[in-house]
Amino acid sequence: MYRARTLVIALVSLFFIGSCATSPTGRSQLKLYSKSQLANMGAQAFDGMKTKQNVSQKAVQNEFVSCVASFITKQVPNSVFDGQWELVVFDEPQINAFALPGGKIGVYTGILEVTENQHQLAAIIGHEVGHVIAEHGNERMSNSALIGIGMEATNVLLQSNQIANSNMIMAAIGMGVQVGVQLPFSRTHETEADLIGLELMARAGFTPSESVNLWQNMDKASGGKRQAEFLSTHPLPTSRIEVLQQNMASANYLAQQATDKPNCKK
After folding, report:
1. Active site residue: 63, 92, 116, 128, which one?
2. Which of 183, 71, 210, 192 is nearest to 131 (CA)?
3. Digit-coded pLDDT (tens) for 183-194
């Protein structure tokens, strides 16, 4: 019982210590890691990827992606990252891109087959940078730590009280946490990154409506092979498009105010 009580106290302490943070969209966040810790983890992960995956040597391809990324990163507040962003184009077929704390961006050549122009690639890069701005990595790790402590405390209580079928109960709780907490949480991150990315691309002078065309292309690229939304880490493309369209008027206004119009050639 003493161990269970200690775990519960730790759980509550962690919550109150980190629960005062707020995301760019006004959502409460739990963040237990420092920016320097995240930047170090991001740098280590990025260095590892560069040694294990093929890096594109195509000059035109690299220049195009670098051009788009430079316009997006200019819109990132210095409070998020005030150094020189590092961009790598990975010569891999997967339809993906990512950004990491500490100013790291990776773009896979597979995504260039789906993005038709600079504006659609800007929507992708803006989305990924949006995750960094909102510190979603910090939030995911923090919540995983909190859930881990809670699950361990629950397991100790069940075992110490000799509750029958405790393993089955823990498995059911684990499934409930995944479907009821972790997956919706992940989808919230994706929607938030979409909105931040939409604002970034608009402020950078790209055409915001191309973000809708991008997700229509992504939907086609999936070939209709996707899980039901409540079992997925990502919202359905149709859901993403709906949210983007709801915020398109303000994005168009920001794009009209942009004085520097990108002209990145694919």
Report:
1. 128
2. 192
3. 444 678 889 999
